[in-house]
């Protein structure tokens, strides 16, 4: 019975990972599309950055866990892409602290919050996103806040966050917590994991 349960869990994890890849690719292709429409000279650099991210998604995410430092580096690469896209109207802050070395997490655990911040927070005017990650002992705390356009409400139509909820439940049973809040002018999401 334990073996069957383990096989079922592995199959579900693999299915969830398979959903993440196309979801991520579609989102990043939208970024490239926007730059190409503007006939931006930065499109070539963006393609190079996207190829690095896609390589990470295809190669590294097949592993059950990845180094937290690698996950942070790929998040920073994604942020460079988005900053390139919204240079004139984005105030972006990303800070991390604590003992991140020798820590491992499930792949693509940080990106869904940031993707949502760009999806729900970007408007025609100036916007801001604040990302904080802290590791204390065996606890990882991750928080993403972003400005909320007055006319926009959060939607739960995507697969990113529901997929993340399930992946966390399987990888960190009883050791993870997500909260998402919609305030009048701010979206706030935070994650805590006992590694």
Spell out the key features of this protein:
globular, Heat Shock Protein 90, 195 residues, 25% strand, 5 helices
Walk me through what this model shows.
The protein is α+β, with helices and mostly antiparallel strands and 195 residues long. The protein has a single domain (2-194), classed as Heat Shock Protein 90. The chain contains five helices and seven strands, in the order ααβαββαββαββ. Strands 2-4-5-7-6 form a five-stranded mixed sheet, covered by helices on one side. A hairpin with a 3-residue loop joins β6 (176-182) and β7. The radius of gyration is 17 Å and the shape is globular.
What is the share of helical residues? 40-55%
CATH-defined topology:
Heat Shock Protein 90
Structural classification: alpha+beta
Radius of gyration: 17 Å
CATH superfamily annotation = Histidine kinase-like ATPase, C-terminal domain
How can the largest sheet be summarized?
5 strands, mixed
Helical stretch tally: 5
Shape by Cα distribution: globular
Topology:
Layout: H1 2-37, H2 43-59, E1 66-67, H3 68-85, E2 90-98, E3 104-105, H4 111-121, E4 127-136, E5 139-147, H5 160-171, E6 176-182, E7 186-194
Parallel strand pairs: 2-4
Antiparallel strand pairs: 1-3, 4-5, 5-7, 6-7
Brief synopsis:
The chain is built from five helices and seven strands; from the N terminus they run H-H-E-H-E-E-H-E-E-H-E-E. It has 195 residues and is of the alpha+beta class.
């Amino acid at each position: 019975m334990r073996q069957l349960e383990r096989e079922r869990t592995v199959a579900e994890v693999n299915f969830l990972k398979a959903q993440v890849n196309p979801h991520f690719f579609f989102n990043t292709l939208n970024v490239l599309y926007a730059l190409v429409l503007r006939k931006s000279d930065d499109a070539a650099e963006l393609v190079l950055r996207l190829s690095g991210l896609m390589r990470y998604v295809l190669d590294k995410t097949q592993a059950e866990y990845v180094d937290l430092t690698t996950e942070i580096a790929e998040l920073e690469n994604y942020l460079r892409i988005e900053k390139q896209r919204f240079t004139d109207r984005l105030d972006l802050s990303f800070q991390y602290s604590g003992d991140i070395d020798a820590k491992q997490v499930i792949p693509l655990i940080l990106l869904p919050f940031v993707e949502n911040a760009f999806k729900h927070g970007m408007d025609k005017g100036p916007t801001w996103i604040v990302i904080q990650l802290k590791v204390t002992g065996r606890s990882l705390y991750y928080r993403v806040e972003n400005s909320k356009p007055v006319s926009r409400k959060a939607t739960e139509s995507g697969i990113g966050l529901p997929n993340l909820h399930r992946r966390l439940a399987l990888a960190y049973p009883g050791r993870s917590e997500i909260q998402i809040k919609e305030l009048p002018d701010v979206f706030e999401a935070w994650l805590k994991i006992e590694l």
